[in-house]
Amino acid sequence: MLCVRLLLLAAAVGADEVRYTGAVLEHEPYSSWESGGLAILQENARIFLEHAALARQQGADIMVFPEYGLTSTNLEGGDVLSLAQVVPHPADQVVLCFLNQTSSHTQVLRELSCGAAQLKLYLVVDLIELVHCSPNQILDCPDVGYYLYNTQVVLDHCGALVARYRKKHLFLEPGFIPGDESDATAVFTTDFGVTFTLQQICFDIMYESPGLANVEGGVRDVAMSTAWIDELPFLTAPQMFRAWSAGLGVNLLVANYHNTAKGMLGSGLFPGAPRQLSSYTYDHNGGITLLVASLTTNTSTGHTTRVSRPRKDLLEDGKQHEGAQQKPQLQDMVFIHEDLSRYNHLLLEEAASSVTASLCHNDGLCCNVSYTFPGNTSMTGHYMLLAYSGLVEKGGGVYSMYIQVCSVVFCLSDEVNSCARVEGEDPPLASSFLLQEVSGMFGTLHVFPSVMRRDLTLVSEHLWDFNSIPLSRDQRKTVIHVTGETGPLLSVTLMGRWYQRDLV
Ligand SMILES: *[C@@H]1O[C@H](CO)[C@@H](O)[C@H](O)[C@H]1NC(C)=O
Ligand SMILES: *[C@@H]1O[C@H](CO)[C@@H](O)[C@H](O)[C@H]1NC(C)=O
Ligand SMILES: *[C@@H]1O[C@H](CO)[C@@H](O)[C@H](O)[C@H]1NC(C)=O
Ligand SMILES: *[C@@H]1O[C@H](CO)[C@@H](O)[C@H](O)[C@H]1NC(C)=O
């Protein structure tokens, strides 16, 4: 098998955009221990490659798979070690498909390497990485003689292992140790001319390293594998992914684990440029979902190198699943709810014509909302403005992070913890509450915007925009401006992260 891995670098002349086609797979992995660990890995790898072939037929250049997508999260049922793979160092660019001898700890990675080369498709896969160590030689080597990492790897279009990222921010994952490699190990440049950062295995998205750090270093395309547990009102999967991508202006390709009983679902391709539609799925009954969409990267702002490659396989405009949305069945959904009782909150009163309300909290955070709310007897419920600056706990109190939030949220009563309780509710078709703008004076630079309806669909990017205006070194005004008819809103949120103030 001959595969050219030579990058033809050319100066960026004229065009400053590269267009490529991304794919993500949402899937509930095979998890039965009946035939052992290797059978779990091989069955999931088979499902990966079957869908990778479909994605390639639709022109995909790169495809992302979910966190734990190869192993499932059912790690208690058998010997975790039998699920672990030994990952070569990316600097060695090993093509595992060429190896004649494989152990059960390289076999599945080898099968994926052969699949990537055969399909000529970049594969981004999350797996359990096995690293042997010697308790005599390394001080913190466990007695069992190995470490396990939650690791994302990239197999290029020739099957070579070209990048590896070991998850740094584990979320209640006993048995794993956090990665400590430089953020640069998560960066790779493709033969279609786009530089990506791996990153964001799930909970990482709440932190700076490695994704945000690499984005601030100029990378504009991010591949995320996740098993995200939904939390209302601010952190449901597509809402959070859209917010992160829009807040930073980067393309985010996210593949999520599908397990609705645990509140895990929602994947997509979220473009960084303003007013480009996301392609995402958030379907309770979805099971396995493949999304393919084309994305554009601005090479003059980024880290990107231009390369030449014949492009016969590009999707036509409009052929992709742009804005693909499935309405979730709220009756069956499972959510964690953030405790809002420490938030400052203000009930928004009815107003026949446009009014502005304001609310402040700690650290100089002040939020404004402009709206009209003529009132309507056929509509139940209330809207509140929420303001909060301070620490919040995640993972049942194990993690503590500093946030700043300005949000307008739908609530069942005038009690703040009745906000964003949608389970079992029938979303209305219309609402007399019309939002014009939510703005906030933030102390952090990192503010992420989201606009979500009561049926948990995202409001189209054509109907709102986001601005972030620095006022001084430590203050910025950020604004969500709604420009069209959105339908009944659940949560319109500016979510700031103040990483330096986290409790560690
Ligand atoms: C694998 O086996 C083939 C055929 O026996 C041989 O030509 C090739 O050199 C071997 N590759 C490696 C890496 O040992
Ligand atoms: C790309 O970025 C440059 C520099 O910020 C900007 O001038 C240009 O308009 C951008 N092009 C596109 C197509 O967005
Ligand atoms: C009241 O709400 C219903 C639907 O819930 C809508 O059809 C009607 O136009 C609304 N009336 C006013 C005055 O907003
Ligand atoms: C909120 O409104 C007040 C009064 O109009 C204004 O002074 C302030 O700048 C506004 N703040 C934001 C964040 O828009």
Distinct small molecules:
2-acetamido-2-deoxy-beta-D-glucopyranose
Shape: globular
Distance between the termini: 50 Å
CATH topology of the largest domain: Nitrilase/N-carbamoyl-D-aminoacid amidohydrolase
DSSP helix count?
Answer: 4
Count the domains.
2
CATH architecture of the largest domain: 4-Layer Sandwich
Helix share, percent? 10-25%
Biggest sheet: strand arrangement: 6-5-4-3-2-14
Strand content: 35-45%
- Radius of gyration computed on alpha carbons: 23 Å
What string gives the helices and strands in order?
EEHEHEEEEEHEEHEEEEEEEEEEEEEEEE
What is the tally of beta strands?
26
Sheet with the most strands, sense and barrel status: 6 strands, mixed
Residue windows where pLDDT falls under 50 for at least 5 positions: 8-14, 302-325
Structural class: mainly beta
CATH hierarchy, class of the largest domain: Alpha Beta
Under CATH, the homologous superfamily of the largest domain reads: Carbon-nitrogen hydrolase
The mean pLDDT is 88
Protein name: CN hydrolase domain-containing protein
Domain CN hydrolase: 20-297
GO molecular function: hydrolase activity
Keywords: Hydrolase, Signal
